[in-house]
């Protein structure tokens, strides 16, 4: 196990922002910068000064942010061909920005120089050297991103190495090798990085894209070959197929290989992943290693049975190490062990007979189309009802739904509800479609009895047709995710009528909120 220090360079705010569907506001970027700083990331690349007004505003405001752990870095390119660095707008913007460090990229692949820039090879090397030197003379510390380095190394090793030498001669303090097209195999990464590390007496970094699904593996291989900086993004967001996912890189280097990675606390990893996903409006994939919702989810009964004896039987690291949590999924594959573990999560001690009764009930309901592995709230209500712990706090005694405008699909719903004392409330509400109208009417009616209703809102609504062969007469499963601003929960309803399935999921969601509110008030 090595204890070598590995520097993490986060480019979520620049390279990650090039991901399709992601557009950070200035405020978004400032919030992510503060989060990454609290996480302890070594360098945070803020963007490209002079490229657009938003990045200029960000650097102006970021200069007032007191960073405790991270160093803000500005990104840019070498000077344009034929323009002196002292007259190049890009370099002048970098020189005048508040960031101490600048990371500039230049071509290291002869093919790119001749076909994309259409300039002599020697001119490109001079541009690299002179651009770095200008920034150093302006008081900046400089990293050089060797764009397309591995393609260039494969095509013309001497020229690719010459690009690195030009940057070093100009005063660069880091040489970062970029797999810009993301197509390099791991063995090529290893041999090229080893060659560079031996050739240059200065630190080397790695910047991998994920077009071959190897960005994480290639980044780790580069570190094992001598690189001491990894550039990447949180959740792997980025152009095309994305960048190296720093969540996986950090966890693997720390937990698997024993490197001293410059982040403050690994248990913050999942929190940071979710935070960036929320701010970017691009939630991390549930299947992401380490930080994904499914990363420590267990469904098979045999797995859960073994896990109850020792979690190492089916988990390669403890979920708490990266701030995640273990989830026991309930389905028709569940056995007594799965149910027992799930009940323990809920604070319920149940014997073998009671667990078997729950298993039988779950399997019967899943045969009807229910699915509880993604609906923990409905599962908990079901168990507590079976145990006689709770009674429905209200019941829907009737409802109607009207389509007001067939063109716009605006709707009106009326509902009758009755609380546990027999007090009835009858009200109506409009909505964008029948389910939304029913949701609004139900909440309006129940607000009279339950103050917690004012805090509840829907965050997701999914419909799944269970038997496509039955066409419009098919049963449907509705999953609803709700929140009270503090926590969130999911409920399920199944029926041949989509309105009825939605109503069942809605009433479960509200009943769960009321139950939790009462439990909290009784403690």
């Amino acid at each position: 196990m090595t204890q070598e220090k590995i520097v993490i360079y986060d480019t979520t705010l620049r390279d990650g922002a090039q991901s399709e569907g992601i557009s950070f506001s200035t405020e978004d970027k400032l919030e992510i910068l503060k989060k990454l700083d609290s996480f302890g990331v070594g360098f945070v690349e803020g963007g490209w000064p002079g490229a657009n007004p938003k990045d200029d505003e960000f650097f102006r405001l970021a200069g007032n942010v007191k960073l405790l752990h991270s160093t803000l870095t500005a990104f840019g390119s070498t000077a344009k061909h034929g323009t002196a660095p002292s007259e190049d707008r890009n370099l002048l913007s970098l020189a005048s920005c508040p960031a101490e460090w600048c990371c500039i990229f230049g071509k290291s692949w002869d093919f790119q120089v001749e076909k994309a820039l259409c300039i002599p090879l020697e001119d490109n090397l001079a541009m690299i050297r002179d651009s770095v030197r200008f920034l150093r003379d302006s008081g900046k510390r400089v990293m050089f991103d060797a764009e397309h380095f591995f393609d260039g190394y494969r095509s013309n090793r001497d020229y690719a190495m010459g690009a690195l030498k030009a940057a070093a001669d100009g005063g660069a303090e880091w040489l970062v090798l970029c797999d810009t097209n993301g197509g390099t195999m791991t063995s090529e990464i290893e041999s090229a990085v080893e060659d560079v590390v031996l050739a240059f007496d200065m630190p080397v970094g790695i910047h991998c894209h994920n077009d071959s699904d190897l960005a994480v593996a290639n980044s780790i291989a580069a570190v094992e070959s001598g690189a001491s900086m990894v550039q990447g993004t949180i959740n792997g967001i980025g152009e095309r197929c994305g960048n190296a996912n720093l969540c996986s890189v950090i966890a693997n280097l720390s937990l698997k290989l024993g490197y001293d990675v410059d982040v403050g606390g690994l248990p913050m990893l999942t929190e940071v992943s979710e935070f960036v996903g929320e701010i970017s409006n691009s939630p991390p994939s549930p299947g992401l290693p380490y930080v994904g919702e499914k990363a420590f989810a267990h469904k098979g009964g045999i797995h859960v049975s073994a896990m109850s004896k020792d979690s190492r039987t089916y988990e390669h690291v403890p979920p708490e190490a990266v701030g995640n949590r273990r989830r026991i999924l309930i389905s028709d594959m569940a056995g007594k062990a799965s149910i027992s573990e799930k009940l323990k999560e809920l604070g319920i001690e149940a014997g073998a007979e009671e667990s078997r009764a729950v298993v039988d009930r779950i399997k019967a309901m899943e045969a009807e189309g229910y699915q509880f592995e993604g609906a923990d709230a409905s599962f908990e209500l079901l168990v507590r009802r079976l145990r006689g712990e709770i009674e429905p706090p209200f019941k829907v005694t009737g409802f109607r739904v009207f389509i007001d405008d067939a063109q716009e699909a605006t709707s009106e719903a009326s509902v009758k509800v009755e609380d546990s004392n027999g007090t009835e409330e009858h009200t109506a509400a409009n909505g964008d479609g029948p389910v939304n109208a029913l949701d609004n009417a139900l909440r309006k009616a129940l607000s009279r009895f339950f103050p917690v209703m004012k805090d509840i809102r829907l965050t997701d609504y999914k419909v799944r047709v269970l038997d496509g062969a039955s066409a419009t007469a098919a049963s449907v499963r509705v999953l609803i995710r709700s929140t009270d601003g503090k926590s969130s929960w999911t409920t399920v309803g199944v029926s041949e009528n989509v309105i009825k399935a939605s109503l069942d999921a809605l009433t479960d969601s509200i009943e769960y909120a009321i139950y939790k509110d009462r439990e909290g008030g009784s403690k």
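The mean pLDDT is 89. The longest strand covers residues 394-405.
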